[in-house]
Design a protein that fits this description.
Blueprint lengths: L1 H20 L2 E5 L10 E9 L2 E7 L7 E4 L3 E4 H4 L1 H4 L4 H26 L7
Antiparallel strand pairs: 1-2, 2-3, 4-5
Length: 120
């Protein structure tokens, strides 16, 4: 029994070390049955204040961050201090909420652009 507990402790230590190396997490936008794949990307920034995280759209250029109460904003417009203001846990929780919002918005957009079918 003691050996098993030691193995669990070693596993937890190893997982924490691996987690500390992560620089981003990808949260899939739920598939609402209207097609396509999308994700919200949580990115880490290390600076003199320590480790901070942002909820982003993952773009290669023109990167946007989710700003609470405002939605997607270009990081170049709001600044890195506004974008990278969360702990890892806060950013991951927010990313899941944003993914749900994005799924609902996409589903509404698709529904609004569907051609109406005339009933016979």
């Amino acid at each position: 029994m003691t050996s098993h507990r030691h193995d669990d402790t070693a596993d937890v230590v190893a997982l924490r070390q691996q987690l500390a190396m992560a620089s981003e997490f990808r949260v899939p936008v739920p598939d609402t049955g209207v097609g396509g794949y999308a994700e919200v990307v949580v990115k880490r920034q290390l600076d003199g204040r320590g480790e901070r995280w942002a909820v982003t759209d993952g773009a290669f250029s023109g990167l946007r961050a989710w700003v609470e109460g405002e939605g997607w904003r270009y990081i170049s417009d709001v600044g890195r201090a506004v974008a990278y203001r969360h702990t890892r846990d806060e950013a991951l929780a927010m990313a899941h909420q944003v993914a749900e919002i994005e799924a609902a918005c996409y589903q509404a957009e698709v529904a609004a652009n569907r051609p109406e079918v005339d009933e016979p």
